[in-house]
Amino acid sequence: MLPMPVIETSAYRAPRLLRGGHLSTLLPSVARRVRGVTYVRERLDLPDGDFVDLDWSKCGAGIGNEGFEKFHNPQPPIRNLVILTHGYLGNSTRPYMLGAAKAFNAAGYDALAWSHRGLSGELNRLPKLTTHGSTEELAAIVPHSLAKGYTRLVLLGFSKGGNMTLKYAGELGANLPPEVQSVMAISVPADMVGSVGAFRGSFYERHFSRKMQKFIAFRQPLFSPTDFPDVARLRSLDDLTTHYVAPIMGFSGHRAYYEQTSSLPVLNNIRVPTLILNAQNDPVLSESCSPRDLARNSDFLFLETPTFGGHCGFYEKSSDDLYWMDRRAVEFVVSSTQ
Asked: 60-66: which pairs have CB atoms within 8 A and are 24 or more residues apart?
């Protein structure tokens, strides 16, 4: 039985030394190691002529209980898949992606961890970017996965990837493929205007801006030298978005980008069990990213806001490299698909 949409009391208990939002965000990002996940890469060509790279982690021969079911169940076995979408300027090898893949593999799910355009280690064919609000990539990945015979799909996104995942589910609403049975977003900037406002001028903005500068340099062969002559002078995310991302993707500026890529306006359209997991001490999210009133009035949207956890952190000491958020994701999915 699922809990009420707003989960007032979270089970997460942070270690005393990891109760600050900054440390609980930064330490897992730089120090976490996840062993035992092996990816097999597949390239998926997109309808627009570009591509994304898919990294598969299989849970082993006989997905789930397939071997048992062959002999005891006349119905075709359920084949489970979780589709993992990473955060801003990350990729499929980020620790939180590996942790989720490992946790779901152990629970009988294959994992598909995909990298946004240009972030899999190889330059893409087109200047297009995967934005915070991109849904066309998932719109290609989901049917591609279903064509492989999976009968139960779970969508799990982190940070930017969580916003993309929620926006995809919200835009489709009741038209979401029936095989997609649950959705989860962790540390998600559902309100982009609020999120950017929360960390504007901080260390995090400087960090993300430097990463974007490097990404722009990597993508330079896709443009002529005169396309973005002043990009090296851009230091803030607002400027980088207005003068680089927006012209490429058809937005009028950074404000339009933040407003039009946010998933918040479409959350009420979601029609499958969906969990938003945002820590209250997340240093890059605003309170508006955790829509309590919306969840209270929804039959599908669940909101859990632990006091601690940071951004994509939720550290938990363990012998299997898994963190609390990995176990929580599996727990929610199992409870919502029974």
From this structure: 60/105, 63/108, 63/109, 63/110, 64/108, 64/109, 65/108
